[in-house]
Amino acid sequence: MTATLDQVYSTARSLPLTDLGTLVSRLLRELSEKLPTTSDAELTAIADARETEMDRDPASTISHEDMLAFIQSRRR
Q: Model pTM?
């Protein structure tokens, strides 16, 4: 049987808080191991480039509320 993401989420939410914390910690550790190493200078350059892009075309930005709505829509 293959579990859906909603089933896994529901089951995880029913765990005692200590077990849920352990699960979250393990997941974050595994996720962070797969992330590329990015220096502070590289992150600053990315942020500066995005800020310049937003200054050049304010219409390319979205509100915080729109961003949250988009994230919520992707969870379904």
A: 0.45
